[in-house]
Structure formats: C-alpha cells, structure tokens
Write the structure tokens for this entry.
Amino acid sequence: QKEVEQDPGPLSVPEGAIVSLNCTYSNSAFQYFMWYRQYSRKGPELLMYTYSSGNKEDGRFTAQVDKSSKYISLFIRDSQPSDSATYLCAMSAGGGNKLTFGTGTQLKVEL
Amino acid sequence: GAVVSQHPSWVICKSGTSVKIECRSLDFQATTMFWYRQFPKQSLMLMATSNEGSKATYEQGVEKDKFLINHASLTLSTLTVTSAHPEDSSFYICSARGTSGRLGADTQYFGPGTRLTVL
C-alpha cells in the first residue's frame, strides 16, 4: 500500500462545476498538507498549504484536512478551462522532512 | 514571493556528454533544495536533497557519481548529469524549501523544470 493514494483520473467536468479532488494517506505523522497544480511540461505550482486539520480557503479553492480519517480534499468552485491540469497532493511530517506526493489527478474542464 | 527558476528550460545533447542544470531561488534564501525527475504521466520522483554547504543526500537507487549535485550558495543548486545516455532523458525539476513564516517551513516551491533529451 502506498503512503499516499490519489485517483489518477482523468476527471472531466463542465465549466462552472464544483470539482472535488481527494487523497488518503496512511502515515499518521503527516502534519503539513499541500496541493500543487501542474500544467503539462511545467513545474508544480503551490496552490494551498495547510497545517494539521481544518479548512483553508483562497479564492475559488478550498482545502480540507481530516486527520482523524487521514483524508484531504481540494475543492474548486466555478471551475474554468484554465483549471485543466494535473493536481498533486503532497504531505510532510514536518521538521524539514521530504514531501510525499500522490500520483496526481488529471482534471479537464470543458466548455 | 517564493520564485524558483531553472536553466536551461530544455536541452538536447549527445550521448556521453555532461549536462549542467541550474536551480535558483530568486526572492528567498533556500538552505535546502531538492531535485526530482518526472516521466510522462507519472508523479515526481525525488532524486536527492541538497543542503547548502554540505554533500547531497541521494535517494536509494540514484547514482551519486552520475548525478552530481552542488549547493554552493543559499540561492543556487546545480545538477550535473555526467556521461548522459538516452535513458537519462527526462523532465528534471528542482524545488526549494520554504523558510518559516509566510512561505511555510515545510513546503516546497518548484522551478519550471528542464527537459533533457539525450540522443
């Protein structure tokens, strides 16, 4: 079993839809949770950074962390074609430890 | 803030030559940088952790003599692929670890990547 599980998709939604992306993990030591967006042939771009459980909102993006269930989510409201990309979850136990990535979910927002 | 650059963005070289890739943190100091490679439609694979002023720590299975890493300053790390072969063709991405506060102490900011093609 992988430390971080993420459905690779592809996930196709119509423009304006609410998108839900999820990751589960097995390591209870993880405390820092991130979501990255990666366009084709580009480096990952940090979208959301969360410490411990709870919600964090930034514009159209909301990140949720449920440590009791070892489950994190990223919601995208009013999705746009420009949101079409691969979304990677990543997490760390802190203390400068390396990140553990999910495999990424490919999202396509169609007109 | 938290901008990381990489140079070159793409490179084509002949088999047997060496290629150097630079990774720079432009607006913050990075004591720790990371090097990844990524194959098409796959996630990032960590190759090594680079700490300023000390030797890099390589992940299992990564040849340290083939992938030379130097982190000579707080804003620059370099990866040299020595005696490159076609199987080294890949997308190489660096990242820099954020410091405490606004940038987040345990997150990483990525460069745009370097596409290496070895003929």
The interface with chain A takes residues 2, 4, 6, 32, 34, 42-44, 46, 49, 91, 93, 95, 97, 104-113, 115 of chain B (CB under 8 Å).
